[in-house]
């Protein structure tokens, strides 16, 4: 069965306005039987979005409209495609309680969810480390090295896996090597093999799923899956459930590079 478990939507504030149906018809035409819309959840109460347009997540007042629209589509297309209502939830250190409250409120209405790290804490501020190569390199300068950025990212991913976010905590870890996004920009060879394997073992220990995310293949600074293929194989050997995700932010990007994942099965 072909599934795409990481898809954004017209409710994404930094994506396109492609309608839900554009994604749905493409999924059906592409032979997919199961898709999850996992829009960026509203950021936790009290958190100040550091991106220039402050468009990292949905506004809180849009959340119920998003879920209601999906409920209608789930019923309409029930004979052709399984559509799951989901969210991509940001793990932000220091805002665990606020995130847990949001999940307690909305979790019962979700079919699926992903827990991802985009924001890294440094000196009482948060940086969206995957926003741009320039932001990444500024953080590396502030921390003293590219290696230090990688370590901070992996520390945060580990914290996300271990965090108590309540009964509705997402059970899938998103793009676990997102910090590779600018590896061809900084051009430093970082040996993070042990860190990645440790994270995968933690995912296994906690009984979580792994987002096998193809978006990095479209990023000229990355050109690989998140995580790369050898670690997908390692996760498979560990027995971690693997869920392909195109992380599409428009209909054209839906299922991109999916064949590279499914031919590996």
From TrEMBL:
Residues 4-214 form the PHP domain. Keywords: Amino-acid biosynthesis, Histidine biosynthesis, Hydrolase. Pathway: Amino-acid biosynthesis; L-histidine biosynthesis; L-histidine from 5-phospho-alpha-D-ribose 1-diphosphate: step 8/9. Pfam families: PHP (PF02811), PHP_C (PF13263). It comes from the Bacteria. InterPro entries: Histidinol_P_phosphatase_HisJ, PHP_dom, Pol/histidinol_Pase-like. It is an enzyme of class 3 (hydrolase). Its EC number is 3.1.3.15. One of its GO terms (molecular function) is histidinol-phosphatase activity. It catalyses: L-histidinol phosphate + H2O = L-histidinol + phosphate. PANTHER family: HISTIDINOL PHOSPHATASE-RELATED (PTHR21039), HISTIDINOL-PHOSPHATASE (PTHR21039:SF0). Belongs to the PHP hydrolase family. HisK subfamily. This is Histidinol-phosphatase. It comes from Planococcus dechangensis. The gene is hisJ.
